[in-house]
Structure formats: C-alpha cells, structure tokens
C-alpha cells in the first residue's frame, strides 16, 4: 500500500472509529459509504488485522483497532494543528478554540483577556465535570479543559491556575443560619446537597471532613451548581461551592464555619503534544499572564 493510499485508509479508519458507523464517517469525510468501507477492508486485508467487530450497523473496535486509534488520533491531531498554524499566519489568527470547563467563573476572565489580543478566534465552551472533561481532552474532543482534578497522566499537560476556598451555604430558614459563627463540629450529621461523584469540589469537601472526623449525610445529588443552589433554597440540605462560584441571593445565607479551610485548585489541561499549537499556546500564555498579575 503506497503512502498516499495508506494515509487515505487511515483517515477512513480514524473517522469510522470516532463516529461508530461508516455512514457517519463517510458524511464527515465527504466520501461515499462504499469508498470508506473499501479503505477499511483493504487495510485489514493488507496487514492481516481485524479492526472492528461488526454488530449490525454499529462497529466496535477490537483491541488492535483501539491501539491503532491512539496513533491515528495523534497523527491527525498533528495535521490539524499544522493546518491551524498555517491558517493563523494567513488570517492573522482567525480560527476556533473548543474549551471544556467545570463552570464559567474561572474560564471567562481568561477568554476576555484572550479575545483582547485575538478577536478573530471563535470560542465555544462546554460545561462538565472534571472526569468527563479530562476524558474529552484525551480523546481529542476538545482543545483545552479547565478542571479541579490533579492529573498525573503523562499524555496531559497541566497548568495550575487558581486556588479557591470552599464555602458552605444554607437556606435562610435553616437552623444553622441563625448562628453568626459555627464550629466545624456543627456540621456533624447535617444533610448536604452534593455534586455527583467525579466533582472536584465534592472530593475536596469530603477529604476535609474526613480529616476533621466529621460525618455528614448526602440528601440528594445534583449535576450542576445551579441545581445545588436551587435545592438548598428549597430546604433540601446545605450546599458547598467554591467562593468564586458562590452566588448570593434571596433565600440563601453563607455560613461562617471556623476550622473549615478546604480549598480546590483549578487547572488548565490539554494534550501534551498539542500545547505548542498556536491557539492553545496563546490561550495558556494568556492564563499565565493572569496568574502573574
């Protein structure tokens, strides 16, 4: 198989592995479905490998296929970054940047500063938890993530950004809201509205309580800060959130708890081999300037 035909076959494989079906992959590549099928069949026949398990229209990667996908993801991500570099030079940094963040409060100041220098870059932001964001970055489903979790994976470049205190809040009619100051022991046995497992805030909060020998109850789990806030207003339990994300308002009071000093650190992450891609590198440099300021 020549270099050109091998590259075309690998593109067909990569698109199919990501999409899960040949029909979707063909549409994304702008090719006919039989052409994509032929590329994959030829790749398997030429090298004597099985890339997919066929289950009706859905395709499941074999172990070998999954290993090959790791290489094609790097290959075509590098191609994308090279094209972005050339495009940036040609268009005076016009392009797009796909961000994933645990929430808007830490990412928006960086976006504002970034757009002051690169107004031609279109930015999209998707909100999720730290685990799902890390997974998306590893799978090349985004350019940069903002997470709370500490990342030890060598495939991930990690830039610590901001340390933030955790605060506890309650509905104004909650028994603890009547006290000007509380001790950490006053939290013992209290019901809390928690974020889902995978939340960095929840992990830091539970670690702090365990270290102090405090046990609380989880009354309900929510998948967003906004949902936690509303549940606390409705009297379903106490809430905990980073101070940068706390939004005071009617029906809520922030509790002053002596001895509660839990913090989290937000981090910007990207694939290690992509940190010098022009749009990503400029965004990380913008964040570093804000850290210095």
Give a short summary of the structure.
With 293 residues, the chain is an alpha/beta fold.
Walk me through what this model shows.
By secondary structure, this protein is an alpha/beta fold. It folds into three domains: 3-65, Winged helix-like DNA-binding domain superfamily/Winged helix DNA-binding domain (Arc Repressor Mutant, subunit A, Orthogonal Bundle); 80-161 and 266-292, Periplasmic binding protein-like II (D-Maltodextrin-Binding Protein, domain 2), CATH 3.40.190.10; 163-263, D-Maltodextrin-Binding Protein, domain 2 (3-Layer(aba) Sandwich). The chain is built from nine helices and 13 strands. β1 (52-55) and β2 form a beta hairpin. α1 crosses α2 and α5 (104-117) packs across α9 (278-292). It is elongated. The chain starts with a helix and ends with a helix.
Keywords:
293 residues, alpha/beta, Arc Repressor Mutant, subunit A, D-Maltodextrin-Binding Protein, domain 2, 3 domains, 7-stranded mixed beta sheet, two-stranded antiparallel ribbon, 13 strands, 44% helix, 25% strand
Topology:
Blueprint: H1 3-19, H2 22-29, H3 33-47, E1 52-55, E2 58-61, H4 63-91, E3 95-101, H5 104-117, E4 121-127, H6 130-138, E5 144-147, E6 156-171, E7 182-183, E8 191-195, H7 200-212, E9 217-222, H8 225-233, E10 239-242, E11 252-255, E12 257-258, E13 263-271, H9 278-292
Helix pairs in contact: 1-2, 1-3, 1-4, 2-3, 5-9
């Amino acid at each position: 198989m020549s270099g050109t035909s091998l590259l075309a076959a690998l593109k067909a494989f990569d698109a199919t592995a990501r999409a899960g079906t040949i029909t979707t992959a063909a549409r994304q590549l702008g090719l006919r479905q039989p052409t994509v099928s032929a590329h994959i069949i030829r790749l398997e026949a030429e090298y004597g490998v099985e890339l997919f398990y066929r289950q009706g229209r859905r395709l499941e990667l074999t172990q070998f296929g999954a290993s090959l996908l790791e290489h094609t993801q790097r290959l075509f991500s590098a191609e994308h970054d090279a094209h972005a570099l050339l495009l940036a030079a040609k268009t005076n940094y016009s392009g797009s940047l796909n961000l994933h963040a645990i929430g808007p409060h830490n990412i928006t100041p960086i976006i504002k500063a970034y757009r002051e220098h690169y107004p031609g870059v279109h930015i999209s932001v998707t909100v999720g938890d730290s685990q799902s964001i890390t997974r998306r970055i590893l799978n090349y489903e985004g350019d940069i993530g903002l997470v709370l979790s500490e990342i030890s994976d060598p495939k991930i470049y990690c830039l610590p950004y901001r340390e933030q205190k955790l605060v506890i809040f309650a509905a104004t009619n909650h028994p603890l809201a009547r006290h000007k100051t509380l001790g950490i022991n006053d939290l013992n046995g209290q019901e809390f509205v928690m974020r889902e497992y995978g939340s960095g805030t929840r992990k830091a909060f539970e670690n702090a309580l365990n270290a102090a020998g405090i046990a609380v109850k989880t009354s309900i789990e929510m998948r967003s800060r906004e949902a936690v806030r509303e549940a606390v207003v409705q009297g379903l339990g106490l809430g905990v959130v980073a101070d940068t994300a706390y939004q005071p308002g009617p029906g809520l009071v922030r509790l002053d708890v002596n001895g509660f000093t839990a913090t989290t650190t937000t981090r910007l992450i990207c694939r290690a081999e992509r940190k010098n891609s022009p749009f990503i590198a400029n965004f990380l440099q913008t964040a570093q300037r804000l850290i210095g300021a």
